[in-house]
Design brief:
The protein is of the alpha/beta class. It is about 30% helix and about 15% strand. The chain contains 20 helices and 21 strands. α4 crosses α8 and α7 crosses α8. Bound molecules: ligand MGD (2 copies) and molybdenum atom.
């Protein structure tokens, strides 16, 4: 996030796009609700009616995968009506002309045909965004999990730059992070393209710094990313060490992944639980969960916070860093870290953005009542950074990037007539390794389901709560159907959480050309009523997810 979570309540315009905020980021959603109650205007662009759409001034019920059309059309309006921030563009950005040229033909009328959002709503949203001073964009996987996810992000960034909505409180570009400490993991360099602190692996000077610091030669090319790794399992990749991922639930086109896993020579898991992927493991190192460890976590707003052990790890479980240290020692590397603070100091040492951070300082300031420190924090007396780009765009000049619409890799046809999208619910957490062990959550949502529009169900002879078979070119699953008018007709939606009906047997592993992030949000699918209809366990209606409204007579 360029802004901080605390700034959301003071925003006057919130553009929430591809984020089911109240279910996936409830704390952030609470701040958004606070802003709306204060009088802020919220627009939600999402193919589904979600809780946030009930609070929004407008719901742009976009056709999945058509965001570039929507966003380029908004840019078209802002430029055509001269609502751009000329000073900001002139002094703080480069390459505006390319975007002006690129969006020329993205008229709101044509955008309406592709996106299903009315030209009038596109104009209104563009004008209101451009002319509101404290306007923020909030996005997540509805934007990124596409074969054109990077284009979506560029199209959003273009809107931010042309309106100068950057470097100010409550005004910026805010991707909301997913897992606990996924921000910290990236900060620490857990990606093939970066060293810690987003220093590029391909930058010779940076690489030489790390060669000297670590005392080893380092290859100049980035390693394989996640999607590339999954596609070379058992071939180029013969051994793997997985720490905290349940890939047989979370990776796309997972039947292929399992094929690869079966022919691996060696698989190690470092895990607090025996998850589904553990079936394929040769060795499992029992590790701890968050409440059993010491260290720091970084959240979406770049806030680094110290955590202390609340409970002792059970049995043979040990902290992740201790397992890794001892493994390194067994390999002859002689790592001698005594505690997590020393590991952190090593990471910070060569990373200018984090140079002012240490466990000792965080402990001192926490005891004095502060809640962590937000990076960049470049020295011991730097208080940290509440929002980014305050004294000018960090890169020097904000770079406009022209993008054009590219359709999703797999679109419906006569054989697979529906668009399948996948995601999460309030009650379970990703692979649900953790949440399915919790009775309360299990009671709320105990089984897999698919949401389908009542009319699409009717055409297929499917009644509410009946079992259905969902098919794509890659696989099929059987689960319960929930008739939900909150979807666009022609779309179906299912959560990724359930091992008995894995959404990822269905999903497409096509990746974005830059990040290789998979297209979890769009593939072609078909649904039919299952032949056997086993009785449901328990009485009463199936739990319908967190925000549900009954179909109106006109929708049935
Ligand atoms: N309760 C709970 N909270 C979680 C998680 C969890 O599993 N459970 N997981 C965490 C993780 S790892 C992450 S990354 C975050 C993810 O947080 P979100 O990204 O909010 O989660 P998703 O369920 O993937 O929802 C994305 C939203 O995008 C919409 N969408 C789908 N396709 C499109 C499209 O083409 N265009 C647009 N504009 N919108 C689209 C969907 O309808 C959905 O409302 O949540 C985190 N928080
Ligand atoms: N179809 C579909 N698939 C998706 C998505 C989608 O929207 N649709 N979203 C994708 C996204 S955004 C994400 S982030 C992934 C998530 O997918 P995963 O990362 O595979 O799932 P998680 O449930 O977050 O966590 C995996 C494991 O981490 C373990 N774990 C928890 N704490 C610790 C710890 O402290 N140390 C160690 N070593 N292990 C720990 C848990 O026991 C669990 O087995 O799924 C992706 N897959
Ligand atoms: Mo995520």
């Amino acid at each position: 996030m360029t802004n901080s979570i605390g700034e959301i309540r003071d925003a006057d315009f919130l553009f929430v796009i591809g984020s089911n905020t109240s279910e996936a980021h409830p704390i952030i959603a609470m701040e958004m609700k606070r802003a709306v109650h204060r009088g802020a205007t919220m627009v939600v662009a999402d193919p589904r009616q979600i809780f946030m759409t009930t609070m929004a001034k407008k719901h742009l019920q976009i056709r999945p995968g058509s965001d570039v059309w929507l966003l380029n059309a908004m840019a078209h309006v802002i430029i055509a009506e001269d609502l751009v921030d000329h000073d900001f563009i002139q002094n703080q950005t480069e390459n505006f002309a390319a975007v002006r040229e690129a969006v020329r033909d993205y008229t709101p009328e044509k955008a309406e045909e592709v996106t299903g959002v009315s030209a009038e709503d596109i104009r209104w949203t563009a004008r209101t965004y451009a002319t509101t001073e404290r306007a923020g964009i909030y996005y997540t996987l509805g934007i990124t999990e596409h074969s054109h996810g990077t284009d979506n992000v560029y199209a959003l960034a273009n809107l931010v730059l042309m309106t100068g909505h950057l470097g100010k409180p409550s005004s910026g570009m805010n991707p909301l992070r997913g897992q606990n400490n996924v921000q910290g993991a990236n900060d620490a360099g857990a990606t093939p393209v970066f060293f810690p602190g987003y220093q590029l692996v391909v930058d010779d000077e940076v690489r030489r710094k790390y060669e000297a610091s670590w005392g080893v030669p380092l290859p100049p090319e980035p390693g394989l990313n996640l999607n590339q790794m999954m596609k070379t399992l058992g071939k180029q990749l013969k051994g793997m060490f997985i720490m905290g991922e349940d890939i047989v639930l979370s990776e796309p086109n997972v039947a292929k992944v399992e094929e690869g896993l079966s022919s691996m020579e060696f698989l190690v898991l470092q895990e607090p639980f025996l998850n589904e992927t553990a079936r394929y493991a040769d060795v499992i190192f029992p590790s701890t969960v968050f409440a059993e460890k010491e260290g720091v976590f970084a959240n979406s707003e770049r806030r680094v916070q110290l955590v202390r052990r609340a409970v002792q790890p059970p049995g043979e479980a040990r902290e992740d860093w201790i397992i890794l240290r001892d493994l390194a020692a067994a390999l002859g590397a002689e790592w001698h870290y005594a505690d997590a603070a020393e590991v952190y100091a090593e990471m910070v040492k060569d990373t200018p953005k984090f140079a002012g951070l240490s466990h000792a300082r965080l402990e001192r300031e926490t005891l004095a009542g502060k809640t962590g420190i937000q990076w960049p924090c470049v020295s011991e007396d730097d208080p940290g950074t509440v929002y980014l780009h305050k004294n000018g765009v960090l890169r020097g000049k904000g770079l406009f990037t022209a993008v054009h619409y590219r359709p999703s890799e797999e679109l419906p046809d006569h054989e697979y007539t529906l668009v399948l999208s996948t995601g999460r619910t309030l009650y379970h957490y990703n692979a649900a390794t953790q949440t399915r062990r919790e009775e309360g959550l299990f009671t709320k949502q105990g089984e897999a389901f698919i949401q389908i529009h009542p009319r699409d169900a009717k055409r297929r002879g499917i009644a509410d709560e009946e079992m259905v078979t969902v098919r794509t070119r890659r696989g099929q699953v059987t689960c319960r159907a929930i008739l939900s008018p909150q979807l666009r007709r022609g779309s179906i939606w299912m959560p990724l959480h359930f091992p008995e009906a894995r959404a990822n047997l269905l999903t497409n592993d096509a990746g974005d050309p830059v990040t290789q992030t998979a297209e979890f949000k769009v593939c072609a699918a078909e649904v039919e009523r299952a032949e056997t209809q086993p009785p449901r366990s328990g009485d009463g209606p199936t739990f319908r997810g967190s925000y549900y409204r009954e179909p109106l007579p006109s929708e049935a």
